[in-house]
Amino acid sequence: MSQSSVLPAAGNDAVQPKMPRQIPFIIANEGCERFSFYGMRNILTMFLMTSLLLSIPEELRKGEAKDIFHTFVIGVYFFPLLGGWLADRVFGKYNTILWLSLVYCAGHACLAIFEHNKNGFYTGLFLIALGSGGIKPLVASFIGDQFDQTNRSLAQKVFDGFYWIINFGSFFASLLMPIFLKQFGASVAFGIPGILMFIATFVFWLGRKQYVRVEPVSNDPHAFLVVIRHAILSQGPSGTQSRPGLWLSLIGFILAILGFFFIPQIGIVSAMCSALVLVMGFGGVGAWIQLDRVRGQHPDEAIDGVRNVLRLLVLFALITPFWSLFDQKASTWVLQGEQMTKPEWFQSSMMQALNPLLVMILIPFNNFVLYPLLSRAGIKVTALRRMGAGIAFTGLAWIVVGGLQLAIDGGDPVTIVWQIIPYALMTFGEVLVSATGLEFAYSQAPLSMKGVITSFWYLSVTVGNLWVLLANSSVKGAAVTTYIESLGLSVTAFQMFFFAGFCLFAAFLFAMYARNYRMLDNYRKA
């Protein structure tokens, strides 16, 4: 595969691998971009509740704010599919990141300008979802492109540093933006993240002459989707008409179409995401069944690459419950914090600063203390083991937060300090899942699919937030609400324990599946 800049010389790198000089530009870009994103994201729920949605009856406002927030997050993690495709097939990662970053800046400008205009504000959210989501898989995979087989041993450290800088930006954004929102209003609170996004774009542009750029592959006759399509449509041996994979794919397509009849109950975004999940799920199984039929039509390397990607997507699917719990810290947990006792100056959304602060502590602690101790104890800390444990810790965090909700519902005054416990548990789970998953997704992706497979990793976040929207829709009916009340629980507490069980069950399935997963090494050669 051609490169548009000179690769690092091998020479002594095999003995003492060297860090690529261009990495600081990407890391600095990410720190500023994450400040901009989390700066607006972490005040979004409170802004909706206290300003933009005031025309909605108070008893409905909380549910509407949660729906808007998670719809926005769904968009952020859906558009990586578009960004990954554009980068891998048309423009390349560098150009796609640069141009979508400018769209991102325009979105921030809309939020600052249209703080009292719903249409203008929602346009800003859409542009941020498009820009942020479009570049999200590319920055991580662009980092991977800067490494080869001679220095890949440094890649995991850089991915950990990458995740550390994400949380460095998130920490200050989470701490400061609620204060700016309260003291100076929405224009300033949403405008500052916009300035940081412009700085992020400028810093990324400064490194343009030093980056390794992997050329996009256009019109690849053996691309992932081409092989999938041919496998689903292929006939049986000797031209027989047996096509179980095609029938499964058609069933998924029909179910996806039928799902749109439930739009009044679940909303258009939930219906569209559900349709995507059904088509991908049934189509993936259908292609798997018939994949060997297209050997000869496509090279073995392409067939095996598709099969490896499909195996990987099963792991990604099992991670979606983690994301459904994790992203609710900016909605459900913030709203719970509003019911807890706290100093007058303190806002519940400021508790989110605890998450990135703990991440910055836990990443070096895990790498320099925990993992070496476990290794000396004879416990091999693989990527999959870390991710499975992280899903389980997140489930435990929600058992704790559910217990706090029971105390609140019982009329007991509960200080917001108690939220430190679930934040610590979930942040530990996040480090094990998300920081590990960035490098894992890159290493497992075929060389021609780095952007797209990282997009699938982020798509798991979209599906996780889809579970939240579906769960919120399911408890709006009178029959379900009556049943929950008969259990002696509030709807909020019931959902917390439901999500905890959902996550723990997913952790068990993840551990079972991961036992037989075959690890790959798909870094480019020097």
UniProtKB/TrEMBL annotation:
- What parts of the sequence cross the membrane? 68-87, 94-114, 120-140, 161-181, 187-206, 245-263, 269-289, 309-326, 353-374, 386-408, 420-442, 454-473, 493-514
Lineage start: Bacteria, Pseudomonadati, Pseudomonadota, Betaproteobacteria, Burkholderiales
Signal peptide segment: none
Q: Spell out the family assignment given in the record's similarity comment.
A: Belongs to the major facilitator superfamily. Proton-dependent oligopeptide transporter (POT/PTR) (TC 2.A.17) family.
Print the keywords alphabetically: Membrane, Peptide transport, Protein transport, Transmembrane, Transmembrane helix, Transport
Chief location? membrane
Entry keyword tRNA processing: no
Per the record, membrane topology reads:
Multi-pass membrane protein
Location in the cell reads:
Membrane
One Pfam family it belongs to: PTR2
The name under which this protein is listed is MFS transporter
Presence of the UniProt keyword Membrane in the record:
yes
